[in-house]
Amino acid sequence: MTAANDTSVSIQDLSLNFGAVTVLETLNLDVADGEFIVLLGPSGCGKSTLLNCIAGLLDVSEGRIFIKGKNVTWEEPKDRGIGMVFQSYALYPQMTVEKNLSFGLRVAGTPKEEIAKRIARAAEILQIEPLLQRKPAALSGGQRQRVAIGRALVRDVDVFLFDEPLSNLDAKLRAELRVEIKLLHRKLQNTMIYVTHDQIEAMTLADRIAVMKGGVIQQLDAPQTIYNRPVNRFVAGFLGSPAMNFVDGYLEDADGGWRFAAGDIKIPLGTYDFAKPPAPGPVTFGIRPEHVSLNSGTGWPFSIAANVEVVEPMGSDTLVWLKLAQQNFSVRVTSERTPKNDEAVTLGFDPMRASLFDTATGTRI
């Protein structure tokens, strides 16, 4: 069995064990040709380990890896047709930018004319032409990361692997380089697999996101699908800043319709899109802070009264904290409609924007 022709990278039943510890467990992932996939998850979830397996830097315990239809499970990294960009820039300090870019090509015996052509192309794409004769010590962090990307770019490969390349940069530089990486993908149309723990990077860059936990892919889908219809409570809580609100309670059958109940709170679920046939029992109700309306007046099928506890101004908007069924609950509002501490407010929202999770298993209902 081989990978399909339109699949750039295919991972089949991949497992990795370090002694008795399972780091990756029976992973399957197909990456389409030209697709930008982001591996997202907390520290220790296995995302960088998976990337290192694809790169050939770690030997797998079980399973197979195909790149462009070729079984590369036991191939050396240099023979896999990949270019890798690491978290650390890993530039040679004694060499100029031009020498850093050309080092791998010179070692491989690439003709000088071809080396010059590839460096000129990479420098133009990354806008580092004026930096070619500088050494790394004379570059900013953002410039060094561009050079590190350029070193992968000159290899002229089909698949690029990025291992948290922006984590060492400040917030402003990260935002700038996110845009540049996205533009780079649009120009090259190469397959890119990108590891990060930063959900903003994942949401802005990815065609699809693979959310990982404990060496297992929890959900693989388009960013907005994962954001709006998370398959379990872990995914729902990991994506979003601030995180999704969770309120523990019960699912009740109310005269042929379903509702969520937590103490005095009763929320009718008439328009909720159940992922599986519902049954009465303990559930966790989830909704994102920006999907809740504050003091919106009429128009909602229900209203919930609450008192503001804390107000957090955040510039363009404001985060309002209150208690719902004795549990913390946040609402994102525009800065022009900011309530005051202890103010009585009314909450409303569309149940279609909510998520219900089985309290015992965490899976979406």
TrEMBL record:
Compartments (UniProt record): Cell inner membrane
Keywords, ordered alphabetically: ATP-binding, Nucleotide-binding, Transport
InterPro entries, per the entry: AAA+_ATPase, ABC_transporter-like_ATP-bd, ABC_transporter-like_CS, ABC_transpr_MalK-like, ABC_transpr_MalK/UgpC-like, Mo/tungstate-bd_C_term_dom, NA-bd_OB-fold, OB_MalK-like
Domain ABC transporter: 9-239
SMART domains: AAA
Main localisation: membrane
Entry annotated with the keyword Cytoplasm: no
Single GO term (MF): ABC-type transporter activity
Lipid bilayer topology: Peripheral membrane protein
Entries under Gene3D superfamilies matching the protein: 2.40.50.100, Nucleic acid-binding proteins, P-loop containing nucleotide triphosphate hydrolases
Record GO cellular component, one term: ATP-binding cassette (ABC) transporter complex, substrate-binding subunit-containing
An annotated GO BP: carbohydrate transport
Top-level taxon: Bacteria
UniProt-listed NCBIfam families: PRK11650.1
Family assignment from sequence similarity: Belongs to the ABC transporter superfamily.
Name of the featured protein: Sn-glycerol-3-phosphate ABC transporter ATP-binding protein UgpC
